[in-house]
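Sequence in, structure out.
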Amino acid sequence: MRREKANRPYLFGLGLTLIVATGLLAAARFTLPFGAWKRLSSRPVISPQGTGFESAGTFNPAVVEKDGKIVMLYRAQDKKGTSTLGYATSEDGVHFERWSKPVFGPEAPYEKGGGTEDPRIVKIGDTYYMTYTGYNNVNGVGKDKRDAQLCLATSKDLIHWTRQGVILPAYKGRWNTAWTKSGAIVPEKINGKYWMYYLGGASDTGGEVGVASSTDLLHWTDALDHPVAATRPGQFDSKVAEPGPPSNSAPIS
């Protein structure tokens, strides 16, 4: 596939398996483009707090650099199980100052009940593109069925967001007949198109990684009739395979 910019490796959180033998770290079949990971602290950088929007959980962050600072949008959950997106900034990537209220929360009908979850952010041109899960956590049938659907919002400043709607509807796929979530956009064109890895769900296979394409970043179509990273019985990804947040446009040296 032809890239329209210089070749760069992009990292997605699909799972990296390392083999440790006699004190040596070896990677199977490939060499990682980075060194061994070092845990900087025994404590989380963002934890649940208070009795409000982030009292039950804080997880699944998206992180980008803006104006010399690290900006994090993260999924926050209250005691009722409703999710919103919190906003935090850091000078060093370890110590964060966070807002006292969400920067993005459920407003649209397809976000009713469950909320907004699992942000993934890339900057392309002067626009930030955020995929997220809109979770309609309503028991019922028809329009009120329980859906988790992959959605998109855009922003110029990471604070004021414009919803672009559901980009890969649940129950509208071919192999992915259930939920759609966790869209990781590759931030440059390949063969004249943008590409996105995402989680597609099916009742008999669980969550697996699919790939979709777009010419304008707003309208997406599943590119294949099958997942590109399926679950594997008996392996660490036997239940779910899900893409994590992508790196933005910085190459790994």
